[in-house]
Amino acid sequence: xxxxxxxxxxxxxxxxxxxxxxxxxxxxxxxxxxxxxxxxxxxxxxxxxxxxxxxxxxxxxxxxxxxxxxxxxxxxxxxxxxxxxxxxxxxxxxxxxxxxxxxxxxxxxxxxxxxxxxxxxxxxxxxxxxxxxxxxxxxxxxxxxxxxxxxxxxxxxxxxxxxxxxxxxxxxxxxxxxxxxxxxxxxxxxxxxxxxxxxxxxxxxxxxxxxxxx
Length: 214
Prior knowledge:
Elements: H1 6-19, E1 24-30, H2 38-49, E2 55-61, H3 66-71, E3 79-83, E4 87-93, H4 101-113, H5 120-126, E5 133-139, H6 146-159, E6 163-169, H7 174-179, E7 187-190, E8 194-197, H8 202-213
Parallel strand pairs: 1-2, 4-6, 5-6
Antiparallel strand pairs: 1-3, 3-4, 5-7, 7-8
């Protein structure tokens, strides 16, 4: 069964053709049993890859290919690592469906470009980040504002080698949602110590990242 509506496929093909620069590899970690939405996530990634000859998909078993998962910092499934010329630390946990399909589209395009449209002001803020930063963006598939926050987080990761950004479907990982007291989305957690809720402007987001780096 197709997960991407037929009437949207042609628009996506055109968008990917116009905006992608370098090839992108989507690495999917999955498991056949005791994993909600793993098979659907794999199917969506593979279907998405048919829309551009610049996209390939590699599928790994989370348990059997544990070394590969650890190398990429994958600690839960379903997981998608979006890799371009290098690993920018762009990750999606959970099926990127509903509004979150846009998050996958934006991630692939930005990783393909290896650069972003972040403002000079935001890039200047990022230049002051001197320590590793881990951004977690908790989203839901029915949240229209979540893809904006997710896209900014992923762009920050593309622009800085010190930043990695995970977009996590709170509904698929209720234990994490409970741990971080996610009662509204998008909720952003930076280095376990800086938190905020909402789709902040990119420069204000970057300011919070800078706070989390200290």
